[in-house]
Amino acid sequence: NDLAHKDPFTVALKNFGLKPSPNES
């Protein structure tokens, strides 16, 4: 989801390396 990339919450999670979106794999 492109929106996820723009979502500050998701971005924060990605910064922690949690990768909340399976699509990111």
From TrEMBL:
<protein>
    <submittedName>
        <fullName>Uncharacterized protein</fullName>
    </submittedName>
</protein>
